[in-house]
Every structure is written in C-alpha cells, then in structure tokens.
Amino acid sequence: MAQVTLSGIRKVYPNGFQALTTTSFDIPDGEFTVLVGPSGCGKSTLLRMVAGLEDITEGELRIGDRVVNDVDPADRDIAMVFQNYALYPHMTVRKNIAYGLKNRGTSAEDIAKKVAQASDMLGLDDYLDRKPSQLSGGQRQRVAMGRAIVRDPALFLFDEPLSNLDAKLRNQMRIEIKALQRRLGVTSIYVTHDQVEAMTMADRIIVMNGGKVEQIGTPAEVYHAPASTFVASFMGAPPMNLVPAHAVAGMVRFAKTSLAVETHTDGPVTMGIRPEDLIPDTSGPLPFDVQIIEELGAHRLLHGVVGDEKLTVHVGKDTDVGTGPVPLSVKPGAISLFHHETGTRL
Ligand code: ATP
C-alpha cells in the first residue's frame, strides 16, 4: 500500500514566507497524480516535503500506513526523478542505474538482473557502457528513470523531469513515462508547470495557485468544470473565454443576448465558454466579429470581439469563415459561471 495522505500540511519557510496554506488530500495507491501550477505556486515545496527534503511546518504526512514527517528521505521508500537528471558524469550508464542498489548492499547478481530488466524496458541496452556525456537528453532522462525503477520504490516523485528536453522529445517521453507508470503500477506524483503534460499524463490533477490547492480532479473535470476562473484560464490552450455577464434565474445575459444556463444565481457573473464550444452558425445569437484568423493546420483559431469583449473560437480546418461578422451559437451545457469577484465556480 502506497497511498499518500496529507492531513493539514502547511509550509512556512524560515524567513516567514508561507509557501503552502493548510492542505489536505489523499493520493490513492497506484495513481498518477500531477501537481500543476504557475512558477512559485508551491508545487516543488509540496513535492520536496513528501520526499523529505523540506521540513513540514504543520500537519501529518503518511506514505502507506506510516507517518513519515520525521523519517529520513532514504528511509521513505521513494525514488525521485529530477529535471537535471542528477547523473554521475564519471560513471557509465550501467553504474548510474545500479548506484542506489549498491549502496543498499544488494548482491551483484541481483543488481545485474535489475539493471538488465530496467535497461530493456527503457531501450538502453546499447548504451550501458557509455558515460552520460555521450547520451542525448532523452537518453539521459531514461537513465534517470532506470535508476528510479531498479529501486522498486513504493512511490515515484517527478520534479519537472521533461523541462530540459525539446518539444518533440518531451511529447515522446511523456507517453513513455505514462506507459511505464501504468505497467509498474507505482503511485506517482509528478510536478510540472505545463498544463498539457498535466492533462495528458494524469489520472488526477491538483491545480495549485499562490500556495493553495485550487482544484483536485480528473483531467476532464478540471477542463470541463473548472472550480475557479484561475483554473479555467490556466488549463487549456487557448484558455477558456471569460467575459462579464448578468445572470437571471435560468438565463445569462451577455452582449444583449440571453443564453440558457442551469443556474439559480441572480446578478453579475463571469461567464466562461471554451473556444471549441462556440460554433459559427448563421442563426446563432452572438454577433461575433472575426479580426484575426490563426491557421494551425488541423484547426484554426478565430480571434475577435462580441461587443467590447474579446473571444477566441476554435474551428476545424474545413470551416469556411473569413474575417468580419460570423454569428455564433454555444454548445448546450457548455457555459460555466463564476462569481464575478472571487472567481469561484457558481
Ligand atoms: P517553480 O515552477 O518556479 O519551481 P514552484 O511552484 O515549484 O515554482 P516553489 O519552489 O515551491 O514553487 O516555491 C514556492 C514559493 O516559496 C515561491 O514564492 C518561492 O520563492 C518560495 N520559496 C521557495 N524556497 C524558499 C526558501 N527556502 N525560503 C523562502 N521562500 C522560499
């Protein structure tokens, strides 16, 4: 059992800065959880507390059944993969992968077996006698993964492991890491500021902002029912359209148009609609004026205005539209409403 449980965890750095407000959540056994948020939101702080590299100011942290607040990092049964790989430059790939095992006193025979298994899994067989400097970035990243795998930990921790790779390799490695995690079934916590990585890799996403958790949910929940305007605009590229509107039970008024929506709210609101949920439609109620068209191959983005409000619309490459007036309709059930001041989902 390697469920991770945070109960009332808080972090205040010695200089008095609170990097994490009181936070509680569980990470179920075997799940791939991604912590995502902008720079400085506290995601690395949280990961480092789980790893034991940072003191916990308040609260209780359990890995499995064990409270580990005061347990040494080496005794937490975790393996961590860092952004900079942290490989030993003077050691071969084989020795780098085996390093943690040797320190633990594993027999030479077992080490050889485990290294062979990991290198086979990661496609490193031809590189075992090379030094890290003779490897590409992706291969180095795989060696770092190999070192984590051979330790057979209860928990994998990843700290932005792909951010030093180019875009193409990043895409490839994120599929590899996800597939490997599925295959091994090891509980994993993965930190990134990249919302695409979060959406594509996670079983569950934890969105953080300014030292607090904004939302915990599956990628679909976080995307389709964001808990706040922050989540709505952080997850998704381009982000959700957010415009001021006015709710009267069962309707929301925007740009002199009434749109049906399930709500009991009355008064000013922020209305959110994903770009792909706005549909060019000659009988649509929203008078959209297209100003710029971005061609992206498989699809196009229409940037324009309804009244004074800017909107972005995502259409397929075959949709026949030009700049100028393009009336829009809204897909049923696609409107999110948020409190106009706090940004909380209504
Ligand atoms: P990034 O993606 O840039 O790494 P992050 O979300 O991982 O950001 P953290 O590294 O967890 O952010 O830092 C959270 C906040 O805590 C930041 O405002 C940072 O400046 C602050 N912080 C980090 N380490 C310390 C420290 N040792 N003392 C004081 N403040 C710190």
UniProtKB/TrEMBL annotation:
Protein family according to the UniProt entry: Belongs to the ABC transporter superfamily.
Molecular function in Gene Ontology: ATP binding
CDD domains: ABC_MalK_N
InterPro entries, sorted: AAA+_ATPase (IPR003593), ABC_transporter-like_ATP-bd (IPR003439), ABC_transporter-like_CS (IPR017871), ABC_transpr_MalK-like (IPR015855), ABC_transpr_MalK/UgpC-like (IPR047641), Mo/tungstate-bd_C_term_dom (IPR008995), NA-bd_OB-fold (IPR012340), OB_MalK-like (IPR040582)
Organism the protein comes from: Jannaschia pagri
UniProt keywords, alphabetically: ATP-binding, Cell inner membrane, Cell membrane, Membrane, Nucleotide-binding, Sugar transport, Translocase, Transport
Domain ABC transporter: 4-235
Pfam families on file: ABC_tran, OB_MalK
Protein name, UniProt field: Sn-glycerol-3-phosphate import ATP-binding protein UgpC 1
Entry-linked PROSITE patterns: ABC_TRANSPORTER_1, ABC_TRANSPORTER_2
Domain of life: Bacteria
